[in-house]
Amino acid sequence: MDVEYADGRVTPLAADRWLRPIEGDESLLARCDGPTLDVGSGPGRLTVALARRGVPVLGIDVTPLAVRLTRQAGGLALCRSVFDPLPRTGEWSEALLADGNIGIGGDPVALLRRLRELVRAGGVVIAELGPPGSTSRVERVRLRRNEHVAGWFAWATVSADDVGTLARRCGFPAVYHWNEAGRWFAALS
Ligand SMILES: C[S@@+](CC[C@H](N)C(=O)[O-])C[C@H]1O[C@@H](n2cnc3c(N)ncnc32)[C@H](O)[C@@H]1O
To answer: What is the pLDDT of residue 21?
Structure first.
């Protein structure tokens, strides 16, 4: 599978890497100890890993195959957008935006404001970011496999340099950064 950008660039999307643990995952998982919403959970590697640790966790994803794979692997998942009505609204302790999922919807302000509604007061959003020095941007992309091409959608990338300002606009005054295995993260609370 490839990602095609509106400006004509095409990059491979190694989606099968989401089927197995990725170096750096442990630093996300270790921060989730209360009810956790895994937003854009894909085939569920993080949802399932948390469930195995006894953490109450729900994966949500708009792709039916992803939800099916998560359930087959023993995780709890709903085929729902993060912007749809969701259980435990205002009660989640943690919400995960792993694998660049702060890009969902192409509007990080709308997404973080939605997560402000979903997590409890004092709850934490854990987001994976672009490295310092990268550019935050919104792009139109579509997925293609050989001659099969899906529709265009908007996807955002947020640099670690910009997440503090963004988080404060969305009701998360505290931002803690870390990096692990070449991946960059922030916990917003
Ligand atoms: C980069 S992949 C995430 C992979 C995943 N975190 C994992 O561990 O496998 C992005 C995922 O977000 C999902 N997604 C896109 N828009 C969404 C939305 N509005 N609500 C929930 N999930 C969404 C996609 O279907 C896709 O599975």
So the answer is: 87
